[in-house]
Each structure stands twice: as structure tokens, then as C-alpha cells.
Amino acid sequence: MHGIAAKPQGMAARRGGFGRRSTAVALSLAATVVVASVLSTASAASPIRTVGGRPIAGGAHAYVAGQLLVRFKGDVSGSAIDRMNASLGATTVRAYHIVPNLRLLQLPRSLDIPAAVAAFQRLPEVMYAEPDFVSHIDDTTPNDPSFNLQWGWKNTGQLGGTPGDDVDAVKAWDLSTGSSTVAVGLLDTGVQTQPHVHTDLAANVWNNAPECNGVPGVDDEGDGYVDDCHGIDTINHDSDPDDDFGHGTHTAGTMGAVGNNGIGVTGMSWHVTIVPCKSHDNTGNGTNDSLIECLQFMQDWKDRGLNIVSTNNSYGGCLEACDYSQSLYDAIKGQMQHGILYVASAGNDSANNDITPKYPTNYCLPNVIGVAATDNNDSRAGFSNYGLHTVSLGAPGQSVYSTYSNPDDGFAYLSGTSMAAPHVAGLAGLLEAFNPSLDWRGLKNLILAGGEVKPSMQGITVTGRRMNAYGSMTCSNVPVFGPLRPLPNATGGTQPLSALNIMCAAPAGGLTVTVTPGGTTFTLTDNGKNADIAAGDGIYSASWTPCATGTYTFSYSNGSTDSATVTGLVPCIRLQPSSGPPGSTATVKGRGFSPNESVTIMFDARVIGTTTANGTGSISKVITIPGGATRGTHAVTATGATSNLPTQSRFKVTT
Q1: What pTM, to 2 d.p., does this model score?
Q2: Measured between alpha carbons, how far is 547 from 553 in angstroms, rounded to an integer?
Q3: How much is the pLDDT for 53?
Q4: Assigned CATH topology for domain 572-653
């Protein structure tokens, strides 16, 4: 990880004293921010570290001590949840409607996180339980702020760059400079609001008029927060997203510093509404809880009619955010279902995200755009992560000049994939202003297809391109293809087999892919069914189950190829017979499970049986097809309790 930007002195945080009223228990008010050390792998002798005033537990993958995220099944009542929690000494801190039946729990001191995860996962009413993982801002130390030239918008050779190696912003602004009717969300360390909103952002930072002009201490517009004039703070639990770190103000300026006002710098959109949600504290640390609440806030306001088209998410980083989080995945998917793009920084570890997963960039969701950083010579910035299957494209991220938080309305250079992502999130807003008929699918695909093909991005990003604003606004007959899954180092179990295939904003048509060894041909579809998550987004998918370890080659019908090496357990099942009427029986035969592990068998999303693998990892279980099963093809899934690798076969209901 690259270093954290130094915080200028004399910038004390100023916080409102108003927490959210709809939480299950009262939230403590944060009048000041607890200073925390930069997150690192802890040892027994390490001092207690905090995030937003809450202790951080040690270990390679850090999480908030004493708190757990648990999602209960949809048919479980609130009273039943309370009883289960009480049986383990836990209480509800927060319930989220962005992910139904997801709760943030406070644990008793006698129950540590690993024990709590195991205890809740043993309950049949629980879908999953996981720690409240900690994420960290992706940035590096600021450069000399006197070099106030924005080479990313127009590269004339400043800082030793190559003239013309920029995103053609000036040409794009000939077509549109944005619109205040379009909004972009900012999940970060906030935006300077104290002692006043940064002068070069003031006209574009969200003004929630009922709260700005309302009665202090009252939830004037009924959104569940009081005095949220410019946004909220979910890490300190108040309604002032003031930036006490500098990072968020910088990314906000890249997205939407006011243009043509004779002050400071220009954002990607001269006119846009920036909606801040402070998810990270004054050391750059945030939690899954703070992120999910921010995403929920954005979704709620989108439903209220605020046209939020994208959120910028410049955080992550090993060791802090290497763990997959089902709750954060579900919340990001909720954003997709409400038409919001999730733009994420790729990370600053100089690492291949295909090999070492980096979240949130690596969440395999159609609305996620992962962004690498480029420099002013169109090379990959040395610190930037990359990934042929996981990072979408590049954008300027080295020595980026933008607004910065201090009492005198500062400006500074920062470097990092944090600086690259807001170029893309801001472009989504500019594209929406230029063509309001676009939905999230069209916006994303134009961003990807409109980029410039660059040698530095070939073989290390999905598109092989660096963002270009003018190219996205004028895209015509530009095809883009890129395999997405499986990753080069794959595990066993059923998994997506998917590829991006677009022509500018539109899907470019279905594909087939032949997998060898085996010679099986799959038809990839973009219909939002089975393995395909969203219809009409230009991502074509099928389900693939490797039944042996080894290297597999994927030969696409357009002539492209890809490969993956499967290691570890490779559970595989087949059905005998594989078709029949409702109420008929079939035998599930399988191998490759862990010896003696419990295996759950499901018909679509319904549990229809359990069995135990023998000493060689094989199973044989007679199942009954549900009497109400509809005619057509259904998925039968077997998942081992120890390996947690789902493997599928298909059953055709005939009548």
C-alpha cells in the first residue's frame, strides 16, 4: 500500500450532534474524532487501534472488534431474530433495508468474532455471518501543491508528460459541461464543509434544501437523518460529512469542481450535484457498516428522485480489504437494481487483482467499474493494481491536481488509484447530462468502449483502454470484448463463465465458448437468468463446473481464447435421471467433496435434502423433485459445509 496523505495541522473536525433516528439502538454522538494509527497487521504488543472511535481487531484481515454482520433468511421474523441474538448475548445495532434482514450486531465481551461467526452460521435461520471488515483509502502522499496544472484534462507536457496524453476533456466540454440535475455520490472521508464548503465545490455540493433551511435538530424531509444539509457521516454517526483528512475533498474536485468560475480547478463535470457520505475517518479507515449505510443513503435518495447515476469508491487495500464480504456484495448489487454505477479504485499495491483478489474492485457485479491509474505519459502508474479480468480500464491517477480540505480552500497534487476512479465516476455524470436517456448499462458501456486503446493497458485491463471523455460521448461502431470469469487461478465448484461483449452502449450479441479438455460447448446469454446477473448489460454468462484439476482453455466463437488453472477440491455431481415430472425421484451422485463433510442439496433456492460424503468424498442421495416445480430446466446444487463449494447439475421438469 502507498502512504496516506499527510494531514495539515489546524484542521480540527467540526461535527453536528445528530445521529440517525431509525436505528434499533441509539448511536453515540461523536463530537470529536478518535485519532487512529494507519492500519497494519497487528501483533499482541500493538496498541489498540480504532476506526471511527471503535477498536480494530488484529490479524491480517482487520475488522471491528465486538461487531458482526449477520443476514437472516427472509422468512425469519424480527422477534425470532431478537430471540436468537439474545441466546448468544448479542444485540442489534443497525438494520439495513438495502439488504433485507441484514443486521449489525454488538457482541458480548465473552464472544470473540471467530466464535460468533461459527455460532451464527450453525443456526438454520442464518444466511451468512461475517466480520465488519475495515477498508482504507487508496492514496499516496501529496506532491508540491504549487504545480497547479491538470494534465489529465489537457496534457501540454506539464510535469514532463507527453502532450496529448489526456482524456480529451476540452473536446468533451464542447458537447456538454454537465448538469446540476445529475448527481454523483461520494463515499470517502467527506467533503470540506467547515468553516464553509470549499469555494471551488460550493455550487456543486448537494444542498438538501429542507434541511439547510429547516429547523435545527428536526428531520425536516423525513429521510431518517436530522440536519443532513450536505450529506451524512456514517463513521462518526452525525449529519455533517466534513472532511478531516483531505482525500474526499480531492476526489470530489476531480468529479465536479465548478468549471469556468475563475477559481482553482475544473472537475470532469463543471455542473453536477455531488452527494457526500463520509464513510472513512480522519486516518482514512472505514468499515463495511459505514459503507453499507452510505450505499443505502444513496439508494434511498435515488428512490426519492435525486438522479444519482454513480458513486465513487476510492478505498480498499490489502491487508485491510482482501476479504470477500457477502453483505457489501449484496449492497452493491442493490445499487445496480436501483440504477447506480459503483466505480472503484483498483488499489495501490502494484499487484494483479486477478491473482490476489482486491475488494471492492473484484466483486463480480455488472455495475462495478474497476479503475487503474495511468500517468501523464499514458503508462500504468507504478503503484497501480491491474487485472485482465477484474480491472475495467485506466484513468489519470498520478500527480492529479484537485481541491483539498483546509480552512483556506486548499488545492494539492495526490497520486493513487483513488485519484483515477473519480475521473470515471465524474464521466458517468457528464454522459448522463449529455444523453439523459442512458441507464446504468449504457453509461458503463460507453465509458468502457469510448476509451482509447493504449499499449500500457493491453493485457492488464478488461478493455485494454484508458478513459476518454470525448470518445465516450461520440462512440460509434466500437466493439469491445473481454473475458471476465473464471479467473486464471480458479477453484472448483460451479462458477460463472462470462465475458463482456459490447458495441458502444449496446450489447453486441450472444457467444458460444468451448471448454477443453472435455470439448463441452456453452451458450453465453445476456438475459438476467441463471448465471447471468443483469439482462441487457453486455455481459454474457453461463455456469461452468470443472470436474477435475488442471488447465482449461476457453475458445470463444469470435476467435478469442482464455484459460484458467483449477486447483484444490473439485466437487462434481450428476443426476440419474436428469428429467421427470414434479414429485418424481432422482439420485444425486457426486465426488470431489471433503471426506465426511455434510452436504446440502438444493432445488433452485429450496433445500430438499442433506447427506454426508464418505471417506473418499463421494455422495449418493435420492431426492424428490418438488411437487410444485414448473416445467423447464432447474438447478440442483450440492454444497459441502466444510469446502463451501457449490456444484450444480440441471434437472428438466417435463410436465
Answers
A1: 0.85
A2: 14
A3: 65
A4: Immunoglobulin-like (2.60.40)
